[in-house]
Amino acid sequence: RFPRVKKIFGKMYYTIKDWVNGYGNDKIDTEDFDPKSIGNSTTFSYNTNSFDVIKKYISVLAKEVSDRAKKADKIGDSIQLILKDSEMKVLSRSKKIDKPTNDYSIILATSLKLLEKNLKDSKSYRLAGVILQNLVDPHEVLEQMSIFDNYEEIKEKYATKLLIGELNRKMKKDVFKTAGDSLRDKKYGIR
């Protein structure tokens, strides 16, 4: 029927013809992609060993990671910081946190603690990355309370965070934050 096409494709002609007509035995994976980590990295415009310069990049990266995790409705219990020096050597450090989160301030504070601990003045860095790891769905996580926990305090703490999150979603930007988040931001000179 199409001798020229048959000649070009050879034996593949019949396979392609089946595909075009909707026949074939290829399996399509229809499962949703379920990431185990979410991260962002950036290459600096120049090599630097300045804590303040790298901190600004990490602040932006932590926000991007937090936003992506919230959009994917995921929380993670480990924060990883990646630094690549001018000799292309990669430094990777991570810290497990007490409770899984996608909260920007926790991701940022943990990343900055890792930076403070591992930044070497003798090295210049060209890239930083922040990764939220061991992701799970928030509704699958159970919080273990002890008999010593003050239930009313915990209930109040989460009610405030939930209200702040709901208000920020309605405003479509982060306008409100807890006093603890404000103090942490002030300590690290964010916003």
Overall description:
The protein is of the alpha+beta class. Helices cover 43% and strands 23% of the residues. It has helices spanning 3-9, 12-20, 51-71, 104-118, 151-171, 179-188, and strands at 37-48, 76-85, 90-101, 125-133. Strands 1-4-2-3 form a four-stranded antiparallel β-sheet. β2 and β3 (90-101) form a beta hairpin. α3 runs antiparallel to α4. The longest helix has 21 residues, at 51-71.
Write a short abstract of this structure:
The chain is α+β, with helices and mostly antiparallel strands and 191 residues long.
Q: What is the general shape?
A: extended
Mean pLDDT: 85
Strand order of the largest sheet: 1-4-2-3
Helix fraction by DSSP (H/I, runs of at least 4): 40-55%
* Number of alpha- plus pi-helical segments: 6
Which key phrases capture this entry?
191 residues; alpha+beta; 4-stranded antiparallel β-sheet; 23% strand
Present the secondary structure layout:
Layout: H1 3-9, H2 12-20, E1 37-48, H3 51-71, E2 76-85, E3 90-101, H4 104-118, E4 125-133, H5 151-171, H6 179-188
Antiparallel strand pairs: 1-4, 2-3, 2-4
Helix pairs in contact: 3-4
